[in-house]
Amino acid sequence: MIFKIPTRRALLAAAALLMAGAAVADEYPAKPIRLVVPFPPGGPTDTYGRLVGKLMGDALGQPVIVENRNGATGLIGTNMVKSAAPDGYTLLYTSNSAQVIGPLLRTPRPFDPVADFTPIAEPLRYSLYLLVSSKVPANTFKEFVALARSKPGKFSYASVGTGSVGHLACELMNGAAGIEALHVPYKGAGPAQVSVVAGDTDYLCDSVGNSQPMVLAGKLKGLALTAESRSASIPDIPTMTEEGVPVVAYVWQGVFAPKGLPDDIRAKLEAAIAKAINTPELRERIRNDGYEAVAQSHAQLTKDITAESAMWEKIIQTKGIKVENGG
Length: 327
Hints:
Layout: H1 8-27, E1 33-37, H2 44-60, E2 64-68, H3 75-82, E3 90-95, H4 96-104, E4 117-127, E5 129-133, H5 141-150, E6 155-159, H6 165-177, E7 181-185, H7 189-198, E8 203-206, H8 208-216, E9 220-225, E10 250-258, H9 263-277, H10 280-288, E11 292-296, H11 298-319
Parallel strand pairs: 1-2, 1-3, 6-7, 6-8
Antiparallel strand pairs: 3-10, 4-10, 4-11, 5-8, 5-9
């Protein structure tokens, strides 16, 4: 076998390429960054995408411009970022409903949430909140479980749509608690909540921020959280796990780049997100909305996605859940 010794010219060319790459990373960002949100304006992902993006821009010295590319339950905007150049100037601000659960509901799967992207950070998350109609004669989680188990198939629960995190979280709870109930999907959080308030359905799994006002008004009863620990915003509400039903599930928001983003640019973005989340004003806003500021690193986000994907895939396959209208 003949080994070729690199020429001086080849070595100089390789060194120049390495130096050029380092220079690009040192200069980054040299222009505004586009942050794609694959949902319509006004929702929680869009709201926090704008808040986090503004503070990221302050930290990086370049504006971060949010661009809504909604459609196909997040697939349009997500694929747009997936196909973009991995230069750090096109990023995705999304949630696990689109990044993790969405692909699991489609055949064939349109993308892999980790392998086809560069995970950067998870700014925040929130657990699901079990809310029961005031017409249901149960005032604690244990009373509700006992009542629902005593009437298999008689209870119904609402969700914002088939395959949503709220739908799947309620299915996780039903399975862990031994509850048989009918799923009634609605198109959006408002109609789903109204159905439970009216007693048309018996319960739903929603966010604290969206539903706690209805609890305080006496129109819904908040019984338990799918969290690892109690929420600072509603410390009197127990977790399902501490009540004997081991269910842990979150809605989270994450920042991703196209596959192949250089590590040093990812590190800059990760640091900017961490700085943004640690801003006192934003942390207070997150807490008041019933969310949890976490600023998970890219490594932890990758690990969590892998574990979560297995959990959601199991419940989707067990229950035969499919996305509505293929959208």
